Amino acid sequence: MNPRHHILAVLVENKAGVLTRVAALFSRRGFNIVSLAVSPTEDERFSRMTIVVDAEESPLEQIVKQLNKLIPVIKISEIAHDQGVERELMLVTVKASADARSQVTDLTAIFEAKIVDVGYESLTIMVAGDPEKLDAFSDLVRPFGIVEAQRTGRIALPKLARQPVKLRSVKTARA
Predict the structure, then answer these.
(1) Using CA atoms, how far apart are residues 81 and 74, in angstroms rounded to an integer?
(2) Most buried in the list 28, 60, 135, 173, measured by CB within 10 Å?
(3) Residue 23 shares a structural domain with residue 62
(4) Does the residue 174 lie in any domain?
(5) d(CA 62, CA 32)
(6) What is the mean pLDDT of the chain?
(7) pLDDT tens digits for range 140-175
(8) Measured between alpha carbons, how far is 55 from 31 in angstroms, rounded to an integer?
(9) Angle, nearest 10°, between helix axes 57-69 and 18-29?
(10) Separation of alpha carbons 51 and 8, rounded Å
């Protein structure tokens, strides 16, 4: 991951216009949003925005301060690359003539991807995983010819805390 890319998890009120206000803040500050994904949370009153932004550390602090001033923003967390679970989804249509189809199918299996549509001369494949996995898959199928591709943008949640599991010893009765 690019060291200038920062993942912000922003909990906001689930209301019309919130996305526009947040995006406008980034635009006014001149920061590029690398990836943006928004969806309702487990509580329908709130949505979670996962924003990947390209910024230096100090301007990022300014962005967070400005976001905190927006009324619909409830909570902001930065998810460090090694402290989060990140996933992205990609649909990619790849040229796959009869001669190349088995090679593309093999790559699909290796990447644990799924063929979701089949045509006479091409295949549409769904790949999910971390951004590096999607980049690698794209690089490997590019020589066959990518007809079109669409990526969802990153979503991320913090990794769960791990506690050692205590095993209880069980005594067995002897006959």
Answers:
(1) 22
(2) 60
(3) yes
(4) no
(5) 14
(6) 89
(7) 999 999 999 999 989 999 998 876 656 665 655 554
(8) 7
(9) 140
(10) 5
